[in-house]
Amino acid sequence: MNIEFYFLIVVIAIIAIVFLAILGKFISLWFQAFVSGTPIPIFTIIGMSLRKIPPRLIVTGRITLYKAGLKEISVADLETHFLAGGHVETLVEAMIAADKANIDLDWRQATAIDLAGRDVKGAVQTSVYPRVIDCPSDGGYTIGVARDGIQIKVRARVTVRTNIKQLVGGATEETIIARVGEGIVSAIGASDTHLQVLEAPERISRRVLDKGLDSSTAFTILSIDIVEMNLGENIGARLRADKAESDKRIAQAEAEKRRAMAVAAEQESKAKVKEKEASLVSAQAEVPRAMAEAFRSGKLGIMDYQRIQNIQADTDMRKSISKQENEGKGGSK
User: Which of 97, 123, 243, 325 could form a Cys-Cys staple with 162, CB 3.0–4.6 A?
Assistant: First the structure.
C-alpha cells in the first residue's frame, strides 16, 4: 500500500509539474497584463492559444494601447483583426502614432486600411512628414511642346501628404505622377512660346495645382516644384520640313501623272495618224480599179489616160526639183 501510495503521489506530482509548465507562459502573460493595469482573464489567454492566436502578440498589443491611452480598443478587437489576416503589431504602432499626432484615425478605419493591403503605419508617418515624389519617377523628363514648336523637357518634384480618409479606394502615387505629367504637358502646350515657359516656370506649377489633380487619390498635393528644365528639339521646324517634303513628293507625283497622260495622248495621236495613212493607202488602191472600170464602161478614153499620165509625170518632176532645191539650201547653210 505504501508503494502504491507513493507511486500515485509521484504521478500526480509529474502531472502537476507538466500542467504548471504548460500554464506557466499563460500565467506570466496574465500577470504581466495584471500589473500593467489591464487585467485579462487567464481563460481568455488560453482560448487564444486554442484558436491559433499568438497570446503574447495580443497581450502585448493590448498593454501597449492601454498605456498609450487607447483604452477603447479591446482584446477581442485585436483577436478579430489577427484572424482576418491583419498585422496587429503594425496597426498598434500606427494607432499610437496617429493619436500622438492628433490625426483622426479610428480603429475601424485603420483595420480597413491594413486589410486592404496598404501600409497604415507608413500612411500615418507620411501624414506627419510629407513625402516627395519625383515626376517622372524613372529619373527621365516630362516632355511638352510650346505653340512655337519648341520642345521643353521638365523634371518636377511633388510634395504630398497622405489623405487617411481616402486611403482605402483612393488612387496611388502612380496616378499622381501621371496626372502631374499630363498637367505639365498641358501647361507647356498652352504657352505661346518656349520663352514664356523658361521665364516663369512657376506658371506651370500654379496651373497644375489649380486643376485639383489629387481628387479621388490617397494623397493631398502640397506643392509642385520644377527642379530642372531643358530645351529639346524644334518639333515645329521638323514638321514644316516634313510637310514641305510631302508637298514636293505630291507635286512630283502629279507631274509624273501629267507626263504619263501626255505620252498616252501622243501615242493615241500616232495611232490615229497610222489609221489615216492606212485609209489613204486603201483609197489610193481604189484608183487603178476605178480607172479600169472607167475604161470598160467607156467613160475614160486612151487620150484621157495619156493626159493623166502626163500630169502625174509633171507632178513628180516638180517634186523632184523642189526636193533638190531644198537640199541645196540646207547644204549651203
Answer: 123
CA 323 from centroid of its chain's CA atoms: 83
Query: In whole angstroms, what is the distance from residue 67 CA to residue 36 CA?
Result: 8
List, in sequence order, every residue forming a beta bridge with 332; answer none if it has no partner: none
Domain locations in the chain? 2-128, 131-236, 301-333
Q: Which amino acid is at 193?
A: T
What is the Cα 232 distance to its own chain's centre? 21
DSSP 217: B
What is the grid cell recorded at 38? Answer: 489591464
Distance CA 58, CA 41 (A): 13
Closest CA to 107 of 142, 145, 61: 61
Beta partners for residue 151, in sequence order: 145
- Enter the pTM of the model: 0.56
First-to-last C-alpha distance (Å) of the chain: 165
Q: Provide the angle, in degrees to the nearest 10, between the axes of the packed helices 55-67 and 75-83.
A: 130
Give me the residue label for grid cell 502625174.
Answer: 312
The torsion angles phi and psi of 52, rounded to 5 degrees, stand at 65, 35
May I ask the CATH class of domain 131-236? alpha beta
Helix (H) or strand (E) holding 151: strand 150-162
